[in-house]
Amino acid sequence: MNETPTRVVLADDDILLREGLASLLERSGFEVAGQAGNAAELLALVRERRPDLAVVDIRMPPGHATEGVEAAKVIRTELPEVGILLLSAHVEVDQAMELLATGHRVGYLLKSRVTAVSDFVETLERIVHGGSVVDPSLVAELFSTRRRQDPLELLTQREREVLSLMAEGRSNAGIAHKLWITEGTVEKHVRSIMSRLRLPETEDDHRRVLAVLAFLDAR
């Protein structure tokens, strides 16, 4: 028996981007259950069609401010089983922090990441299956804006790389594969990061992401 395809709703006022994304997802085995050009259309679609995932632009009509994030928060409250991926052309993590802090079935990517098809599809699947994903570019941007005496300055470059991959929702094994180091080495880096940042150690990927987000939000 064939597995039921993941049903996705797309919300973006850029119709060319939206149609391109729909085509990409359909070719990758997803079912596009609907498209929306503004927040009101998005909410109506999600309520009617109950997709597995909503891919949402942060800035949408009429004000092109935080309409997408606000709609996503409503979806999370009304239909918490629906996964949410926020997309933005810019780093706007402050507006999304509350949603990201829910810690499950949620992600935030920069639109430039959509060009890496395999990574993008992997991200969607990870969110649908309960994971949390934060674009490493967002983490890097937050690193660059830390206060001078911020504890993040205590981290080595390798530890920052590991922390960025932790924020993507990757396991220790996944981090080891990405950085071409052993899993044991990753475990040592994670212990060091948790110690330096005074965060509790845990094997739960979602809680690790929450810990990273909570620390970065306290800047």
TrEMBL record:
Residues 148-219 form the HTH luxR-type domain. SUPFAM superfamilies: C-terminal effector domain of the bipartite response regulators, CheY-like. The keyword Transcription applies. The keyword Phosphoprotein applies. Keywords: DNA-binding, Phosphoprotein, Transcription, Transcription regulation. The modification 4-aspartylphosphate is found at residue 57. Residues 7-126 form the Response regulatory domain. Signal peptide: none annotated. SMART domains: HTH_LUXR, REC. Pfam families: GerE (PF00196), Response_reg (PF00072). This is Response regulator transcription factor. The lineage of its organism: Bacteria, Bacillati, Actinomycetota, Actinomycetes, Streptosporangiales.
